[in-house]
TrEMBL record:
SUPFAM superfamilies: Porins. It holds the Pfam family Porin_4. Residues 1-20 form the signal peptide. The lineage of its organism: Bacteria, Pseudomonadati, Pseudomonadota, Betaproteobacteria, Burkholderiales. GO terms for cellular component: cell outer membrane; pore complex. This is Porin. One of its GO terms (biological process) is monoatomic ion transport. It comes from the Bacteria. Its main location: membrane. Keywords: Cell outer membrane, Ion transport, Membrane, Porin, Signal, Transmembrane, Transmembrane beta strand, Transport. Residues 8-349 form the Porin domain. GO terms for molecular function: porin activity. It comes from Bordetella genomosp. 5. It is found in: Cell outer membrane. InterPro entries: Gram-neg_bact_OMP (IPR050298), Gram_neg_porin_domain (IPR033900), Porin_dom_sf (IPR023614), Porin_Neis (IPR002299).
Amino acid sequence: MKKTLLGAAVIAAMAGTAQAETSVTLYGLIDTGIGYQRIKGADTHESKFGMANGVSSGSRWGLRGAEDLGDGLSAVFVLESGFNSANGTSGQSGRLFGRQATVGLKSSSWGQLDFGRQTNIASKYFGAIDPFGASYGQANIGNAFSAANTVRYDNMVMLQTPSFSGFQAGVGYSFNVADTTAAQTGFATADNTRGITTGVRYVNGPLNVALAYDQLNLSNRVATSDDPTPKSWIVGGSYDFEVVKLALAYGQTRDGWFGGQSINAFGSGSPAASSFGSNVAADGFKATSTLVGLTLPLGGASNVMVSWQRADAKNDRLNGDDATMNVYSLGYTYNLSKRTNLYALGSYATNFAFQDDVKSTVAIVGVRHRF
């Protein structure tokens, strides 16, 4: 209740008015820890020990609200800002509301239509399947399935249906996926890199299965003669047997890689890769990805998460190497309350970012608090 009143006060101060039929909620979380990472390759051997930010969940604060328009229709909005809890700086390249900035309409009969910046369908659907919830850095599903790496598109129109007997679908179109990238801004539609995201899922009790597809149509201003069209499809699911929850996923990415976390981690690249925003385009590139994961509940307050990810590059057109990446991860969470939990993570990757003989070892402990 306090959060709702405070959020309403903030909006009233900004807008000068507050409508009685509109609910506004202030929310957020802070995630901070201490971590160690070692990166070893043929020409690289570096390690780091220090503060870790946003490992189990990105630190954030936000405002969300709804206005009842009658007949099952509501006006809705979300403004969500990411920040680094270790030093107080803004996340998402300094954007005020870099995690999400949307306004739209929500109907009990046809679903929700949003306009603005938010995550793609693959990230929404497969975050619920991944044992690590599409979080925990190197452990998250996005390392092998880049389109599920919490990819956000600017300038997007997205429609999501309500759940019909467990089935739900979504589709989104971005007129310019990355406003902040100089090579992608121009007046003409084709001067901007456009994105398509779509998917369908079925959720019924312990069963959750999903299929997602993403595609980027490059800006005419991106310097490449091959005109690649990065695309990705993922299929997978999870089943909760109560004593253990099993997760499986399989997919393929072509002509590039989405969401830059797992690409060019050491600044390496090749003439075959044309970089734009947090994505990399490379005509003819192909990678097949697999995930197997388990979640084991221990009592009512803790969970153990285990996963193995594999991404098999079929050629070296992305960054000059075609090594098969494997990521092995083990995590643990312990709930101190409904809002506060402790966590620990250990993860080991070979041929990280498809680079031959590059190994990455991560160990982190931290605390997360929701408000």
